[in-house]
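Need the bound structure for pyridoxal-5'-phosphate, inputs here:
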Amino acid sequence: MCPIDEHSPAPQGGLTAGSIGVRSVMPPREAAGPLVAPLSLATAHHQDLDDVAPTRYGRWGHDSAAALEEVLGTLDGGTAVVFNSGMSAVSTVLMSLLGAGDALVVGADAYYETRQIADQLAARGVDVRPLTDVARQLPEAVTGARLVVLESPTNPLMRIHDLRECARLSHAAGALLAVDNSMSSPLGQRPLDLGADLVITSDAKVVGGHNDIILGHVTARGPELVERLRSWRHLHGTIPSAFDCWLTRRSVGSLEIRLARQTANAAALTEVLHRRPEVLDLRWPGWRLDPDHAVASRQMLRGGGLLSFRLPGRDHLHRFLKASSLVVPATSYGGLQTMANDIATWPHLAVPPGLVRISCGCEPTRDLVDDVVRALDAAA
Ligand SMILES: Cc1ncc(COP(=O)(O)O)c(C=O)c1O
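Answer from helper R.:
Posting the output first, comments after.
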């Protein structure tokens, strides 16, 4: 896996992505000015009766959204538009780009609620083509399609799609490629650099990182795409609040250091887990023995904090989770605390009982490894 700062271009004055994040929480330097951006809650602004300045209104855009968009766009390598949730970002891409008669190709392993939106579109005349095997089926399925939507790594099974190849095939067929990058964040993977046209992120996860924000964003390079996303948000009223934008911008400042610790924790856990006889089907894209590692190492900047594996049955998994002090059973991922999700309880996934997705947190690596080993021993 490539360390991020060797891989990612330095888009601003020679700074790497981590430094851009750290500096982004500060407003422009001024004598005796604050080091942290102030929060402005104003949604209405004085109108210039001489009509020199544009009229401003909070649903159309606000300073906190613009400041967050600037840093997220820089990190993704395009122009970002923020939304009031990851699903709002997903639905804006799907709804604003597709109408009756268009074809949508979507990974059958995409986030469940993304597929539910695809089902709604199908009921409105969109030709939806779900793919169970993207590498094998995409070359044919993309013919005549307007949009391809993929996730990589996939949630929760941690499979990797070759995004460069998917972009090449999509473009050759005249389709746009949108990649949901929630699992990686822009410091773990930059899909626009791999050829994608749109990158979608739920910032409630790795980017927000504290389990206290619901927010999402889409980044694109083409000005027409960006304008379409902005005008959809304007009309449908899906801009996030100033406070959520401010909190997310604060989180971007510590993204690099959190992701580095989460990745180190996932690497250390993988090393321990793959030696345990009761641990089956271990997946972590940063692991040299992962079936998708070769593709992952070509396109990801960091392996990230998410891994999955299977214990022999649900009771075994529950004994493990109850015996652990640091692994918190919870939905969501990417936060400070290590979290685990009992995937077999997800109604839409036919996976064997005992499968678990672990989102490594920022605990010291030794503590986490010791805790997991103790809990596995207790559960055995
Ligand atoms: C891959 C992925 N995309 C989109 C979403 C939706 O994001 P949000 O919960 O912020 O609406 C999630 C949420 O879990 C997700 O995991």
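Comments: Residues 255-273 form the longest helix (19 residues). The CA atoms of residues 182 and 201 lie 4 Å apart.
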